[in-house]
Amino acid sequence: MKISPLFKWFGSKWQAAKRYPKPMFDTIVEPFCGGAGYSLNYSDRRVVLYDNDPHLKVLWKWLIDSATSEDILAIPINLPEGSSVNDPALGLNLGQRLLLKHWQRTNNVGNCWTISPWGSKPGQWTRNTRARVADEVHAVKHWEFGDTIGMVDLPCTWFIDPPYIYNYRYRDGKNFPYDQLDSLVQTISASSQVMVCEASCPKTGKVPNYLPFLPNHSSVTSRRKVTQSHHSSEYLYYTTPKELKTS
Fold first, then answer.
1. Are 83 and 115 in contact (CB under 8 A)?
2. Protein fold of 1-247
């Protein structure tokens, strides 16, 4: 069952999920989950999420374990631009505040907690968005969020969408241990389906080589003007159980 994003997150694979192989198994594992765009397309499966972002840890655990439709419908709309999500007068708990925060800006990974100029415009935190999220949050109540990446009951589908080595601007990609991803893939059971996402350098076209990536598709990463859309050349490392057993 496909549901729409529960909050905004940069690099989400929700729209692009159709360009990736469908899950072969009932369990999907998403390390570096972000907004879990891939898994949202198959929300009725067992989904196991991981992410190091401190806000995501709290937000996902709240959505999965605690959030009710009433909690979400209690989050106000049409707040004045520049007002604080953390204003005690709003009476919101941390999960509610984080949900509202992440509907303000797609790349809102820092400590900006103010209502954006476009926060109440279509596609952001509107009455319709609030009603939809309140209705669809029940679809993830059987999901799990883990504090560390670990092995899960197999077989399963691994959808690995790490910080991109060349064009990932929102975290410190320079210090990310990309070489360890190869080790992770090698330790995953031969009964698993594995996908690892990447992209070529937008300036040089260089393709990351910590895994043998192949071209997958081109995606629009931002739309500022009709003639100034930014595109990303997406690559994919993909193995099926049969390929893993013969590698």
1. yes
2. Rossmann fold (3.40.50)
